[in-house]
Amino acid sequence: MTHEEHHAAKTLGIGKAIAVLTSGGDAQGMNAAVRAVVRVGIFTGARVFFVHEGYQGLVDGGDQIREATWESVSMMLQLGGTVIGSARCKDFRDREGRLRAAHNLVKHGITNLCVIGGDGSLTGADTFRSEWSDLLNDLQKAGKITAEEATKSSYLNIVGLVGSIDNDFCGTDMTIGTDSALHRIIEIVDAITTTAQSHQRTFVLEVMGRHCGYLALVTSLSCGADWVFIPECPPDDDWEEHLCRRLSETRTRGSRLNIIIVAEGAIDKNGKPITSEDIKNLVVKRLGYDTRVTVLGHVQRGGTPSAFDRILGSRMGVEAVMALLEGTPDTPACVVSLSGNQAVRLPLMECVQVTKDVTTAMNDRKFDEAMKLRGRSFMNNWEVYKLLAHVRPPVSKGSTHTVAVMNVGAPAAGMNAAVRSTVRIGLIQGNRVLVVHDGFEGLARGQIEEAGWSYVGGWTGQGGSKLGTKRTLPKKSFEQISANITKFNIQGLVIIGGFEAYTGGLELMEGRKQFDELCIPFVVIPATVSNNVPGSDFSVGADTALNTICTTCDRIKQSAAGTKRRVFIIETMGGYCGYLATMAGLAAGADAAYIFEEPFTIRDLQANVEHLVQKMKTTVKRGLVLRNEKCNENYTTDFIFNLYSEEGKGIFDSRKNVLGHMQQGGSPTPFDRNFATKMGAKAMNWMSGKIKESYRNGRIFANTPDSGCVLGMRKRALVFQPVTELKDQTDFEHRIPKEQWWLKLRPILKILAKYEIDLDTSEHAHLEHITRKRSGETSI
């Protein structure tokens, strides 16, 4: 990358103006996107304008269109909803309204529009763009704008960001607000579960989603619901019988509650609505269970955005500004979106078209078609739900295999969800499933028992590790481990854990040379708050820890906002891995995040102090600095605190906070529950295949590199990678992968904190086409 290109990002926006508006239903995380658009726009030298009250403000003009400053978006990252307001706008639907809107934009010299909203809002934006030159001609004829103004504003660039809690927009994995809505729903489901257990009740929960069942589907996966009704896949005609049978079976297996999730747009095969009241009446009439209905409503739109939505909003905002400023009259209006963890740009109208195709398919009762159009991630969720919801483990056909499941390393939220789905999928496949307590130590000591279906009941939402977990590695107890593998006839191992699970896997591979008993397939599911397992972009538990840190930072920022002139230094976990510090820095709006992967010197610390001194002269009189626990052995948290205290004398005072083990606890977030559930299911499916492959002369013998894998999420897909192949990608001394994808996000953190740095634009998303996404790898 040349220096000229680097410099280009900082001058890209000079002489240009960008307007940002939020339209349609609000969604948590919209503010993060607005903040990023404003700050990155200003960073590139552009002028940025707020349009208040959505399209209505565009039509009305006047003081509804106001120039934004750096400080005007401060403290809005943690607020739900949209600070600049949103309204449903009739005027913009008429050409007359759009004419007024065009007039207002031309008068402000704005030719770049960033629209944050649902598919309706984005379609409106596209219409506006296609009519632009006609609108200008009319305005010029009417003498409302001069020929010179018309030439200056000859074309309009449009970029859309999808903000919608329903996740109903095709082409995007996650829309802004979806994750936060799931947080709200799960908080309520968890609360309801406790009261339902006390009274042995059945609860019917209705969640939002008129045309899209995403929230309902992921909720049911995340809470282990008995049944889910979604518009895309209506139940079979005899569903009433089937539902009642399922509920009573769950009860006879010892469960004290039933949970049924209904999307508000649920229908039967004939397109007739299925309401939560219908379901309640059915259960009461046929089974006589004490049944309650809870309709969640607007709660789902409220509350503070989750860490995921803040990072998503911020990343999308940055990408939107780049897409606008690089736009030409020939580039189509695009949507900035996330696929896996990659930012992508997609043609706006292609996405809108596919989204419309889903509705058409549903109206024509072509439900299979609708499911396919929703994309692979949606289909995968549905497949896993269908597997896990069936209570009757099948009568085993042919030989039964024995698979053991264990936790290794430090506790991480979501471990139990992974154990639950591994055990249940194993039982469904007709296998015998054993659980091992206390990691490799328990495997050596024989702390092993058989798990039935209800052994893991209700585990999805529980934090920590129910099986018990230890950091001990297997090497020194190979003899006892081999003896127990034989004694319990273990034919496969699912190891759920952190870096030690991976190094333990490598030791098992090594041990195969001496011990034949270790020649059994094993798979590692990464689960650690540190997110430092090679072979996976994410690990189970990291999202929960991130949200915990975020919540704490929000509270600390509030305290600092009250006292003024105060800088907080917060130490996060993660070992040598700077993932938590960096991502929490992005999500909480930190001024700096010190990590091991990006070495820093005393000059950098000095620059940070100077930066905060300057910041105290503005209206934003507070600072937040994150430090990863092992980022530097000499520049400790105490050292940095002392340095800041000394240098900030008379300008600001400093406080320090070590977050510690609270980062390992807590109830898992919806992302971690869902991710863990899918990983468990995928690992067990692979395991069954591998055991069959390795079956020779009446016994299992697996000695190939691909019989010992890490299951990881890479960019857009879940992939199995032999542990031995990952060796070269690992820095064993510091227990981190040599290459980490999230380091590319660090410049965004610095720009949003007002550092004059080079934004490396080489990582840019290029325009892709939506149809390409459907073939090839399996996405999660």
Automatic annotation (TrEMBL):
Family note: Belongs to the phosphofructokinase type A (PFKA) family. ATP-dependent PFK group I subfamily. Eukaryotic two domain clade 'E' sub-subfamily. Belongs to the phosphofructokinase type A (PFKA) family. ATP-dependent PFK group I subfamily. Eukaryotic two domain clade "E" sub-subfamily.
Cofactor: Mg(2+)
Active site: D166 (proton acceptor)
Binding annotation for Mg(2+): D119
Organism: Odobenus rosmarus divergens
Gene3D superfamilies: 3.40.50.450, Phosphofructokinase domain
Name of the molecule in the record: ATP-dependent 6-phosphofructokinase
GO terms assigned for molecular function: 6-phosphofructokinase activity; AMP binding; ATP binding; fructose-6-phosphate binding; identical protein binding; metal ion binding; monosaccharide binding
